[in-house]
Amino acid sequence: MTGSLRPGMEGPSFIVGGLELSNPIMMAPMAGVTLPAVRRMFWRLGAGLAHTEMVSCAGLTRKNRKTTEMLFRAPGEGPLVLQLFAGDSDTLMRGAEIALSLGVPFDALGINMACPMPKVLKKGAGARLLSRLDLAVDMVRRLNRLGLPVWPKIRKIVPDGSGPDTLEFASALVEAGAANVGVHGRTASQRYEGTSDFDEVRRVARALPGVISASGDISGPEDVSKALAGGCVSVFLARGGVTDPFVLPRILSHLGYNIGDSVYDDPPSIETRAALFSDLAEDLSTFHGERVAMVLLKRLMSGVFRGVPGCSSYRRAIASASDWGTMCAHIRDWRQFFERGIKDE
């Protein structure tokens, strides 16, 4: 599979959030996951757009090395949204200006208004902004001055009598100039528990046609069809893509895209999966180093080989690898583990 980053997809391009995309399936920003190497894996599988990890504007202003490294864009990537977070407009603008001054080409600027984790909330960022509409609107207006489409991402808001609901909040962002608003159907207090409220996301999408992307519990073709039929212009694929990366080409096929049958058979052959995993390992070690590669390969392996008979033997081998040489040997000799696993079953 090494070579072309994308399958031979055919289908109409369309405009989402000011960008011309090949399809409406986008990789959501995921901390510790949407690194360039992993994004390249999802480009291979047909993603129409991807997000960076959530990047701290405060870290950029302090010239933090690890934060700055998060701006790296790998060769061959498609449309990419730089997602930023900050607790005030000045820090957001300074961080965005620094990021763009480094010459890395981004296609849109995202603002995270959805992260529910305490370390982000205590900075006044992420989902904390859902209770500060004036600040959220100011962030969108000011970021628009930089000339790129602005893509805020929010969560479901249950009105408490003193503030807006989800639709009112999203409407204010659109009026301020947001080109696309990602709406996650869980509240901030839910974090990632419970279920996403698709009805709420579709209510907002129908009221704001052409600018709402659905996020939360997108795990298969039926979820995507329901979101698009409900008025969403696109969907953000997150944990559903990690637990089963090949759901992406299945979704595209379901939507009528020609994804290249010779490369992505359904179900994918074990050879196809092994080739994708090998390419991922090479990209991870090249762009991020062996330590990061070891961690992410162990995390993503189960998804890439999801449902394959005999997988348990290979999973144990990958999980127990303690050095890069051993990991590479396991990746190279994958077939013997599956043959052993099938005999043991």
UniProtKB/TrEMBL annotation:
Transmembrane segments: none annotated. Its cofactor is FMN. The keyword rRNA processing does not apply. The active site is at C115 (proton donor). Keywords: Flavoprotein, FMN, Nucleotide-binding, Oxidoreductase, tRNA processing. FMN binds at P29, M30, A31, Q83, K153, H184, A238, R239. Its EC number is 1.3.1.-. GO terms for molecular function: flavin adenine dinucleotide binding; RNA binding; tRNA dihydrouridine synthase activity. Residues 26-324 form the DUS-like FMN-binding domain. Catalyzes the synthesis of 5,6-dihydrouridine (D), a modified base found in the D-loop of most tRNAs, via the reduction of the C5-C6 double bond in target uridines. Belongs to the dus family. This is tRNA-dihydrouridine synthase. It comes from Dethiosulfovibrio peptidovorans DSM 11002. The lineage of its organism: Bacteria, Thermotogati, Synergistota, Synergistia, Synergistales.
